[in-house]
Design brief:
The protein is mainly alpha-helical. The chain is 65% helix and 4% strand.
Length: 92
Amino acid sequence: MTKLEEHLEGIINVFHRYSSRVGDPDTLSKGELKQLITRELTNTLKNTKDQSTIDKIFQDLDADKDGQVTFDEFVVLVSRVLRTAHVNIHKE
């Protein structure tokens, strides 16, 4: 695999590491999303320990308002984080 393909597979693996803990193994509950964010994005997102921040992120991602975050909805978060990281790299 190329480096990019390895990273893409890594994103999928991280999603499933957390999504398979409770309920539907292909969606993240709010608790699973909180664990993922606080453990995997702690240096990237601010206020990851603040429940209101997690609630806001969850509401923004849960496009269909079913109380779960699908992989497609999770990709929105990955995209936002990646765009911010790209901007920050150019500031350095």
